[in-house]
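$ fold --in a.seq
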Amino acid sequence: MDLPDCGCLLCDDATDPSQWSARDSHIAKNIREYDWHVMGVAGAHLPGDWSYSIGLWHLLRSPEVSFFGIPMQTGMRIVNTLAHQIRDGHPLEPDQRRDDVLGGGFSVAIRPVHPSWYLSFFGAGLDFYQRPPLPITQMFWPDKQGRFPWEEGVEETCRTSQPLLWIPREESSGPWADEEDPKAG
């Protein structure tokens, strides 16, 4: 398979692993052993936690996956489930709905993340890849009726717990966009 350049710490011959941070070394170790790393971030004062993959671009040139608004450990398991599906031959597609992630008859929706959000939420991924742009997607969960945050009549918790990261940050409002310096994990 002819893949575009990755540029990550593992692919860049100019990097010296002895100079990597403990976090980057841990991420690289997980990618070598398990094909990717899942980063979980506790949102503390934001509407929820978030989780995201690091390594899908390195391994498969697949966009990385993020998931917001549910407890970190659960989010990490869900990101891991989708990463397994991608590795097993079920790639991401733009504006895709997938039934192979949550179970229970609930779909997830996939949307691309606008690069204006990268520094706010995906710092460990940016550090590992050493440079943007790398493609990152956001996986959305539905409310109990199967509606997504942008759909009419959606439950308030579903809407407020998940930022709409395909919209540029400067065009967004609410607690996710108003946050001056969220933890980037």
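$ fold --in b.seq
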Amino acid sequence: MFKDISFGQYYPVNSPVHRLDARVKLLITLMFVVGIFFIKSYFGFMLTAVVLVLIILLARLPIMSVLKSVKAVLFIVAFTALINLFLGGENGSEVLWAWKSLVITKASDHTTIKMVLRLVLLISGASLLSLTTTPVALADGIESILSPLRHIRVPVRDIAMIMSIALRFIPTLFEETNKIISAQKSRGASFDTGGPFARAKALLPVLIPLFVNSFRRADELAFAMDSRCYNATDKRVKMKVAKIGIGDVVALFVMCAFFTVIMLDRYYWCGLVDTLIFGGLL
């Protein structure tokens, strides 16, 4: 049931993307996500897809490991697409199909396609961050970016430690959930039959032991950290000190160029590239 969830899972491989500084990858991911929301034309989506595929190839990741994150929310994407298909049209738009009160217009068709592309690219791009960055490096990067907040007494190190522990245990919880489900199925439990309420009720024998095991793990971790005098004070040092390299500068420059093209396409070119590429197809 939870085997297709890739969020929080790290794919260990030696690649230029994996070797990038976590702070740079956080900024690149932020720019990528923000840029997706500014895309208005099919050229922008095509450019974003090309950039995403190039990053996946450069990171040496299996394409299925990235698509697993989309599969996990496929129902939400399909449900949102149906709503936009029948309700996302504009008055006066060309009608493509109509049946009673259900109407599909040309405008709603384009709106639905762009919405699906935006969600797929958004989820896939965000999953690359966890696939190419270890939880410890990601937490250290967040701590470094939020370090100016220490001047206003924000516990940055505490927040980073909490995030590091949470990210570290996400794959562990998914793995333990699969084990509990397999154990319940061996006892005759069924999770794939019946209506939504029956399936939700069938998850109770899974959720109760999962919560019990989670609290037990939390207690064991707290005792282990306390016995080792672990804390999140400013006196702590890091085994690996993050440094910005040439590859980080190049990656940030490329992403800035991508973001600039997206802004130009939205506010200055205004669909001109779509007309030149697709002609009268749209």
